[in-house]
Amino acid sequence: MKTEFLEKANRIATDNISSAQQVLKDTLDLLLDFCEKYSQEKGFIPELKSISSTLSNAQAQMAALSNISRLIVASSIKLSADGVHRYIKSLRAKVGESSSRAASEAAGLVADGRTYATLSQSEFVIKTFETAAASGKYAVVYVMESRPLFEGRQTARALKSMGHRPVLVSDAAIGFFVDSIDAAFVGADAILSDGTVVNKVGSFALAAACSVAGKDFHAITSVLKYDPDKKAIGFLNKEESPHEIFPNPEFEVKNIYFDMVNPRLVTSVVTEAGIMKPAAGIDKGAFQKKLDEAMKELYG
User: Fold this and answer.
1) Whether residue 150 sits in one domain with residue 133
2) 113: left (phi over 0), alpha (psi -120 to 50) or beta
């Protein structure tokens, strides 16, 4: 990798705070910058694919990065270097619009004066409440703080700036407050082939609490985050530094960032292609087909 790109690539590879959508945008911006500087040089395509693959492997839970890497490989087979550059530019433009388009769909599920819950930091969730506020719908939003990096605080600040009333709560307390909410909205780092939603740890607890309390649980994301090759049974959860939880641990500490939410606990998956009902068992094929078709139609 060219030296001037190493620092930015390392920052993307180790970014544990930004939303998955922001990491995707940063990746595409890096690839575009590389295209603009080196698309006319020999060896451009192999190095471009190498950068994309390296970032995809570093953020393995983020399915969108894997899909971008696949799309770049496919485009490099059919297109010239300039063609690949134009294709990545079109991808970046579509990704830039995807959260707004999904938010337009999801904002229809938000009602003025009602109470909701969320966690962590999702551009899709924030855009949804931004869209709702723009149409005069304001809500109370219980925001789980999302340990160990507390991204929930950033979400609460964003919601407050829009005119909503955020209420920050500890992750473990959501079961106490779930009876007070009407529905939950979360983002998603991946939708697996069996319909499982992968998102920040705490998502399963929120979904399970919603299920017991009879509340809807919605995942707002992009079809680019559909991973047709992975199932929950083979999902490997990367362990992060124990020092984020306990600075000087005196015993074993487990620190994981991601949860898996069974499709039976998910009311809907909202994407730029519309609102879909995830399914398990014999019915999952229709859900997969919708995601596959949307991916081809929107991203090539």
Assistant:
1) yes
2) left
Confidence tier at 143 by pLDDT (50, 70, 90): very high
Residue pair 141/206 in contact (Cβ under 8 Å)? The answer is no
- Torsion angle in degrees (nearest 10) through CA of 147, 100, 134, 108: -90
CATH number of the domain bearing residue 160? 3.40.50.10470
pLDDT tens per residue, range 202-245: 999 999 999 999 999 999 999 999 988 877 766 778 889 999 99
Q: Which residues contact 85 (CB under 8 A, 6 or more apart)?
A: 32, 35, 36, 39
**Which amino acid is it at 23?**
V
Structural domain boundaries enclosing 180? 102-299
Using CA atoms, how far residue 109 sits from 83, 104, 184, 214, 222, in Å, is 40, 10, 10, 16, 17
If DSSP codes are grouped into helix, strand and coil, which group holds residue 228?
Answer: coil
Amino acid at 179: D
**Are 258 and 235 contained in the same domain?**
yes
By the 10 Å C-beta count (0-12 exposed, 13-18 middle, 19+ buried), 56 is classed as: buried
Parallel/antiparallel/unpaired status of strands 165-169 and 197-200: unpaired
pLDDT attached to residue 6? 81
pLDDT digits (tens, 9 = 90+) for 77-93: 989 999 999 999 999 99
Burial of 139 (0-12, 13-18, 19+ CB in 10 A): buried
Residues 88, 109: one domain? no
User: What residues contact residue 154 under an 8 Å CB cut-off, 6+ apart?
Assistant: 121
Whole-number pLDDT of residue 279: 63
